[in-house]
Amino acid sequence: MLACIWKVYTKAGKPGWSAFVPIYNIVVLLEIVGKPTWWIILMLIPIVNIFVGISVQHRLSLSFGKDAGFTVGLIFLPFIFFPVLAFSDATYKGAPAN
């Protein structure tokens, strides 16, 4: 799974090694999806973190040109959909507009 996240980060133009560094990997993910770093605080609040996590996953799929169905796959079957995102021909299109 970490290899897939490494590949997703490198596709987005970020250092792949950052997938291995706790907390910093979330900072990099938030940069990829175009959200401010202070959203880490929201991820520490119970129940709120579920909605923030879903939002981040949705924005990640939009960043690579995928739709809401792919977001559902990232949430419920990440061991299938992260490798698809990492090793398919999906390209990083930039952070989606707010």
Treating each run of at least 4 consecutive H or I residues as one helix, how many helices? 6
Mean pLDDT: 95
What form results from the Cα inertia axes? globular
The secondary structure category is: mainly alpha
Poorly predicted sequence stretches spanning 5 or more consecutive residues: none
The ordered string of helix (H) and strand (E) elements is: HHHHHH
Work out the helicity level: 55-70%
- The tally of beta strands, per DSSP, is 0
Ends distance: 28 Å
Radius of gyration: 12 Å
Structural domain count? 1
Our estimate of the beta-strand percent is under 5%
The profile of the biggest β sheet is: none
What would you say this structure looks like, in words?
The structure is a single chain. This protein is an all-alpha fold and 98 residues long. The chain has one domain. Helices cover 60% and strands 0% of the residues. It is globular, with a radius of gyration of 12 Å.
